[in-house]
Amino acid sequence: MHSANLSRRGFLCATGAAALLATGTSAFAQSTDFSFIAPFSFSLAFGDVLYADAMGFYRDEGLNFKAEAGKGASFAAQMVIAKQMSAGRTGGTNFIQSRVDNGAPLLSIATIAQLSPFYIISSKENPVRSMEDLEGRTVGMASLGGSMEGTLDLLMRSGGHSPETVKRVKVADTGASYALIQAGRAGAFIGNTSSMITALAATGDAVAIPMDDGMPGQVYVAHDEDVAANPDKFVAFLRATHRAALTIAQTPKEELDPIIDRIATRFDVLGTADRGAAREDLYANAQNWIAKGSENVLRNVPEVWANAVSMLGEAGMIKKPVDPTSLYTNALLDRALA
């Protein structure tokens, strides 16, 4: 089975390699090569890409595809900026902030999670029912300065609460992080859909509330120069990914086992041993992919992006005015589905 993780050391080495390549061969010399970085360890949250690879959909599109697991949403974006990855998955809020305020040369080529995939997980003994309940608590999250923290800050500000009242600590984005709550070391933790399903299945003590912030939940980003120079490989990537995502989303929950088996035989994926929980996990993630309708799988929905820019501006989380349509493109997806 395939399991790959990119460490910070790997990123620094890759960045150094990029500098050397600047005077020679381009990082995108072979247009059929396509590398993808997930923000964290492989889970069924990334089932669309993992299934597409396991089924050979990328190969069918002429891509030499390789998936890697990164060390956070910001790290994934940095690898794409450094031209060491063709595309990566990151949070919508995180992407918009980095693009608008920091000039990151990234473009959203697709939205995979139409809603935030994050949940606040706490105990029944001391539950979090609203953002107000987070004030004064220690909250665990997989990356500091990434999409989870951005979602937390936006929801706190939108609710009239100060984000500074929440102490943040870094934890793994897995259901096992619930042990920190049981040990009294955290009052809650933020996890993705897969972590939430795992935590609820493993203990009868956990409760979870969704973090619906009105943003594009999770997006696939690419370097804008690479998109302009090599659009065909992104069209191929999106065609194969859309095929996998729609197949999963249209499969009844009770019939997902063959898909999970196929993914698990190709990749080391968290949460597949408990098959009942795995079905719930993949099904819940797929419902997010089609939250704006099956016709909008992978689509950057214009109304969502316009609302996101407006909300972030009102919350003071982006400092410059921006045309929402400059942040994304649907042209590649349209070509893929034509």
TrEMBL record:
Associated pathway: Cofactor biosynthesis; thiamine diphosphate biosynthesis
Keyword hit for Signal: yes
Domain SsuA/THI5-like: residue ranges: 49-254
The UniProt record lists the keyword Transferase: yes
Signal peptide (residue range): 1-29
Catalytic activity: N(6)-(pyridoxal phosphate)-L-lysyl-[4-amino-5-hydroxymethyl-2-methylpyrimidine phosphate synthase] + L-histidyl-[4-amino-5-hydroxymethyl-2-methylpyrimidine phosphate synthase] + 2 Fe(3+) + 4 H2O = L-lysyl-[4-amino-5-hydroxymethyl-2-methylpyrimidine phosphate synthase] + (2S)-2-amino-5-hydroxy-4-oxopentanoyl-[4-amino-5-hydroxymethyl-2-methylpyrimidine phosphate synthase] + 4-amino-2-methyl-5-(phosphooxymethyl)pyrimidine + 3-oxopropanoate + 2 Fe(2+) + 2 H(+)
Biological process according to GO: thiamine biosynthetic process
GO molecular function term, any single one: transferase activity
Keywords, sorted A to Z: Iron, Metal-binding, Pyridoxal phosphate, Signal, Thiamine biosynthesis, Transferase
Subunit structure: Homodimer.
Function, in words: Responsible for the formation of the pyrimidine heterocycle in the thiamine biosynthesis pathway. Catalyzes the formation of hydroxymethylpyrimidine phosphate (HMP-P) from histidine and pyridoxal phosphate (PLP). The protein uses PLP and the active site histidine to form HMP-P, generating an inactive enzyme. The enzyme can only undergo a single turnover, which suggests it is a suicide enzyme.
Similarity comment: Belongs to the NMT1/THI5 family.
Protein name: Thiamine pyrimidine synthase
Species of the source: Haematobacter genomosp. 1
